[in-house]
Amino acid sequence: MTAFLRLVLAIALCGLTPAHAMESMRGILDAVRATPTPAAAPPEATATNVAAAATPVATPTPEPTVEPPRPSKGQQPPVVRVNVAAQAPNFMQPWRKNPRTIRQGLGVVLMDGRILVTAELVADHIDVELEKPDTALKAAAQVEVVDYDANLALLAAPSADFLQSIPGARLDESVSVGDRVEVMQLEPNGRPVTTPATVTTIEVGPYPVDENAFLVFKLSVPLQTRENSFTIPALKDGRLVGLVMRYSPATQTADLVPAPVIAQFLRAAAKQPYAGFPRAGLTFSDTRDPQLRRFASLPEGTGGAYVTKVLPGSPADAAGVKAGDVLLSVDGRAIDQDGNYEDERFGKISLAHYVSTALQAGQKIPIVVWRDGAEVTLEGTLAPRDRSRMISQPYIFDRDPDYVVVGGVVFSELSRQFLREFGRGWQEDAPLKLLYLDRFQSELPPDRGRIVFISGVLSSPNNIGYEGLGFEVVEEINGKPIRSLADVAAAVDNPEGPYHRIRLAEDPGLLVLDVDGSKADEERIKQQYGLESLRHLESQD
Fold first, then answer.
1. Distance of CA 280 to CAs 10, 261, 365, Å?
2. Cα–Cα distance, 400 to 506 (Å, whole number)
3. To 5 degrees, how large is the angle CA 227–CA 230–CA 235?
4. Whole-angstrom distance, CA of residue 47 vs CA of residue 201
5. pLDDT tens digit string along 170-216?
6. pTM here?
7. Contact 401, 417 (CB under 8 A)
8. Is the dihedral of CA 17, 417, 316, 440 positive or negative?
9. CA distance 497 to 483
10. How far is the C-alpha of 145 from the C-alpha of 164, rounded, in Å?
């Protein structure tokens, strides 16, 4: 098995970070506007190969005939416009905000009146507004539940008067490869327009936060330029098939968050507090290598996937699964040499789909492994990934980042959100040492804590000579180990002597700041650089 496939298997079961470059939904509107609609789709399914360790449920099919969009006839469609004002924080200067943005998408009205949208649409929202397509009547909306891993969010149901004449949509979980569906958009005058599409592939693939893999439906569809393109629903006979989360104008392909994932999200959202999607907490590789099979003493004809890592504190760890085990079955589902199982609807597909989408958090399941030449049966209780144990957070939305400023030196915690501040090419342009720590955080000791580093220096008389520092990882301050920004605050609040001693993981090795000079500079730094406070520790209260 290639290194790429091993990485995606890691994503699928416990959330190790891949370096996928596929275009996210954030770029749909700009990409569609910037690219004229091609006459026909090229043969490639996507801009990037995202096979995701699952055997795609697809056989070669003839390319569908491209049909033009057509006005939708009949009753009012089950959609409303969703207008979002959002303002994300600036992780490079965490006391500042980035410019405000406006996003527009379509929300799907469900049978209970709540509105389904993608999580990306409402990330870092300030205001959310609903708008009826036919009358332009508007109403404020509240985000009720959001899951950034699955890229789904629910808005609370507006008044019955607002939803009058708008039917609720049911889910269609029966769609298979080759089925025809319709992608719905709205004209500026509110008239619905549908574009015929064909389901070409069903597989497990990465979602926009690059942290998780779930079921993905791939469509061949020639979408045209229209407003409200941030969230677009796909329907079949009036039932919801999924929400478009990625679109490539070059290949005329769209990736859907499909109905089975939406159904799991709605089941989890019915219970409060929202628990999220379950994970097993292990990574594995295939067992096709004859030498690996001999090493594991696997009998001929036996399937199974070789467990390469078990995350500490995960459901797999609690069940007793060990690195070096061969995973034979989960909840009675036999696992083949590639880590796939036979799904009743989709055929061969990654075990990640069954664990995350078919099972529930809190559910007990039998796990059969091959260990020391014999089968061993274990029992595990599924649970969502415990993000508090993660060394580098994959995303930070809907709150300001934490920071501490001491003598003009800015301390931050490593997160993928910080790395993304380096732009579209962040995976190449961000500091290599921080990329490495984020990428391979599962290889670090489980008690490592968060990565605290110097994210900048605000020049002052007290830090002359340190202006060029940046991205150095902090190990100790005043003799105290640093495992979080709360540790930084505690260490500088209780200095031992006239100097703060900041020990770094690499050169220059040691920084020294005068305690009295740092305090004397505080007001000047706040005024000069526009800081309301020299520290923000919201997530650590």
1. 11, 17, 11
2. 29
3. 90
4. 15
5. 999 999 999 999 999 998 888 899 999 999 999 999 998 866 789 99
6. 0.83
7. yes
8. positive
9. 22
10. 24
| Cβ atoms 139, 130 nearer than 8 A | yes
Report the DSSP beta bridge partners of residue 393.
Answer: 415
User: How many Å apart are CA 146 and CA 123, to the nearest integer?
Assistant: 9
Tokens of 449: 């804590």
Beta-bridge mates of residue 305:
327
Give the span between the Cα atoms of 220 and 217, in whole angstroms: 10
Structure tokens at 89: 């924080």
Q: Tell me the C-alpha to C-alpha distance, in Å, between residue 331 and each of 202, 214, 264, 268, 377.
A: 22, 19, 18, 20, 11
- What is the C-alpha separation between 402 and 540, in angstroms, rounded? 8
Cα 131 vs. chain centroid, distance in angstroms?
Answer: 28
Q: Provide the 8-state DSSP code for 482.
A: -
pLDDT digits (tens, 9 = 90+) for 241-299: 999 999 999 999 999 999 999 999 999 999 989 989 999 999 899 999 999 999 999 99
Identify the structural domains of the chain with CATH numbers, from first to last.
8-64+77-269 (2.40.10.120), 278-384 (2.30.42.10), 389-536 (3.20.190.20)
